[in-house]
Amino acid sequence: MPLPPTLFCGPSGWSYPHWNGIVYPKLKPRGFHPLEDISRYFDAVEINTTFYQSIRPEIARLWIRKVSHNPKFVFTAKLGRQFTHDRRIVPADVSQFKEGLWPMLRARKLGCLLMQFPWTFRYTEENREHLIALRRAFHEFPLVAEMRHSSWMHEEALGTLIDYRVGFANIDQAPYTKAMPPASQLTSAIGYVRLHGRNPQDWEREFGRTDKPAAAHDYLYSREELLEWKPRIEHLQQHAANTFVFANNDVGGKSVVNALELALMLGDQRRIAPADLVRRFGRELAEFRSDRPVQDALFAA
Question: Would you say domain 7-290 falls under CATH 3.20.20.410?
Fold first, then answer.
């Protein structure tokens, strides 16, 4: 039995070189595509490359074809950092960004755009106006905002999100001064959850204090930590039109492990997982079966 039709769970991103031999086979069969593979286990992924640059419409159409074997599958996409971090709303950039995602929106394969703001984006009048300007610039798209500063939990801030139909991204992250705490807020028809991991080094990257990106999001949630989120997600799913849950702890394929575990907790009975991942995370994926044989090396390393 799959998840309920309005509940989607998966990893944030799917194209990582360090997933070769962990999530994806090291020796790939002819015609292999990572998106086609990952969509066998999940019903959604979060497009993270759009945070850095817009995509071309033909790429969006290709991705839609690659997941066509899973009719339920949908994408969400991160809004470009020039809009959220650099705070530049240039009409030409807005148009270009939209152009790449029109095929997904028209095919009903795009759940929403995620606006990921930095911790420094606190609730102020100036930042409120910037949020409203983004809502107007991307008025054709469902929007969700990820706020990392707890000031956005104030009643007036939540009211702004409700008034402008912007969803609230409930996040799990390492604790920090005035960091957004775990919650189950719903400010639009879209419920959204992102699990970043609880590695304190993530905050070093947030403030540009480290040049080691591999250290970020290197965290494996325990079963007990994932169970903390189960009632929050179920609350969102009961009241939202659609609810998206993504694991963003990609290092070593940990996001796939935790997304599989969480999906099972929420009712997904498919119980299949990449073979190399099952072998590497035997305890966490004990209830899953390998989807293909594992190719052992001829000689020990």
Answer: yes
- Dihedral angle over CA of 14, 16, 18, 24, nearest 10: 40
Record the pTM.
Answer: 0.93
Strands 7-11 and 242-247: parallel
Q: pLDDT digits over 105-159, tens only?
A: 999 999 999 999 999 999 999 999 999 999 999 999 999 999 999 999 999 999 9
Domain ranges, ordered by start, for the chain? 7-290
- Distance, CA of 13 to CA of 193 (rounded, Å): 15
Rg (CA), the chain: 19
| pLDDT tens-digit series, residues 27-36 | 999 999 999 9
Q: Report the sign of the C-alpha dihedral through residues 42, 252, 113, 166, in that order.
A: positive
Residue appearing with tokens 């106006």? 129
At 33, the amino acid letter reads H
Give the residue among 267, 237, 272, 273 at the shortest CA–CA distance from 254.
273
Query: Counting Cβ atoms within 10 Å, is residue 6 exposed (0-12), middle (13-18) or buried (19+)?
Result: middle
